[in-house]
Amino acid sequence: SLIVLPVLNLKRDILKKSELNLFKIYWKKTFKNKNYSYLKNPLNFLRKKCANKNHFLFKISNKLETQIIKSILQSMSKNKVIIIGGTGFVGFHLAKFLLKKNFEVVSLSRKGPKKIRFLKKVKYIKTDIIYKKKLLKCLHKHLNSNFVINCGGEVEHRKIKKTILSHHKGAINIANIFLNKNLKKFIQIGSSLEYGSLKSPQKEFFNCKPESNYSKAKYLATKNLFSLYRKHNLPLVVIRPYQLYGPAQDTNRFIPFIIKACLQDKNFPCSDGKQYRDFLFIDDFVNFIFKIIEKD
C-alpha cells in the first residue's frame, strides 16, 4: 500500500486519509490501464482533487516537492531479497515473513523446496553456490536486489569438503557477485559455534576458537567477508544465532526429535543433561533479521 506519511517525517497530517485513498484508487486505475504518466508528478493529482487551496500541498518548495515525489515512488516499489538456502528451515521462515511484508523473494539453493516449505510467490532457483560462473549466470537477472541473506550451505557436516566449500567459498562467491551493486545489506548467517568452547556469555569481540569443520568454515567466511567490508564497503551484517527451533524443522534436529519420540511414546538416547544450551525460536530470529533489514 502507498503510505506517504514517512515521506518527509514532518507532520502526520501532511495528507489526509481521504486524499490518500484517492491517490491509492488512482494508482490502481493507472496501473490497470498501463498509464504511468502520473508518475512524473503524483502530487499534481492530489492538488486537482484538493478543494482547499491553502492546503500544505500548494505551499511546498520545488526542492521539497522533489523529495516527496522520490519517496512516494520508492514506497511504491517492492524491495527485492535473495535468500541463499531459501528452501531450508531458516530460509523458509524468512521467505514467508518477507512475503507478508510485500518483498519480492528469490530463493537460491541446490534443491527445490519440500512440500511443507513450498511458497507460491517465491521465485525458486536451483544451483550450487560453490561454482561462481554458474551462480552468476543464475543471478544475472537479480543483481538489482536490495538485500541478500545467506543462510545456505551443506547441512550434513560429516561431508567435510562440501561443508567447507559451501559455507566458506560459497559465501565469498555470493558477496563478490554483489560488490559495487546497489545492495543495501548483505546479511551473513554465521553460527555460535564460531566461538568454540569459550565461556558464556559470549561477546562479538571475543577471539573465536572454532573446533569443528563446520564452525571453521563459518569463521573463515566471517573473516573474509569482513575483509570485503573494509576494502570494498560491502554492506555486511554477520549474525551468530544459537540453536534455532520451530515449525517445519527437520525431525533429525534436537527439539523436533524429542517431541516426535514423546508423541510416539518411544525412548530416545540422551546425555546426563548437565550441559547448557541456548535455544531461540525461529519467529524471534526472523523478527530480529527484519529489524536489521529496516535499520539504516
Instruction: Please state the overall shape, judged from the principal axes of the Cα atoms.
Output: globular
Walk across the major sheet and give the strand order. Answer: 3-2-1-4-5-6
Order of helical and strand elements:
HHHEHEEHEHEHEEHEH
Number of helices: 9
How much of the polypeptide forms β-strand, as a percent range?
5-15%
Structural class: alpha/beta
Helix content: 40-55%
The span between the termini is 21 Å
pLDDT < 50 runs, ≥5 residues: 1-15
Can you walk me through this structure?
This protein is α/β, with parallel strands linked by helices and 296 residues long. Helices cover 41% and strands 11% of the residues. It has helices at residues 17-32, 42-49, 62-76, 89-100, 132-139, 160-177, 213-232, 254-263, 282-294; strands at 80-84, 104-109, 123-126, 147-150, 185-189, 236-239, 243-245, 279-281. The strands form 2 sheets. A 6-stranded parallel sheet has the order 3-2-1-4-5-6, sandwiched between helices. The protein has a two-stranded parallel ribbon with strand order 7-8. The radius of gyration is 24 Å and the shape is globular. The protein starts with 16 loop residues before the first helix and ends with a helix.
Condensed summary:
With 296 residues, this protein is α/β, with parallel strands linked by helices. Helices cover 41% and strands 11% of the residues.
List the helices and strands and how they pair.
Layout: H1 17-32, H2 42-49, H3 62-76, E1 80-84, H4 89-100, E2 104-109, E3 123-126, H5 132-139, E4 147-150, H6 160-177, E5 185-189, H7 213-232, E6 236-239, E7 243-245, H8 254-263, E8 279-281, H9 282-294
Parallel strand pairs: 1-2, 1-4, 2-3, 4-5, 5-6, 7-8
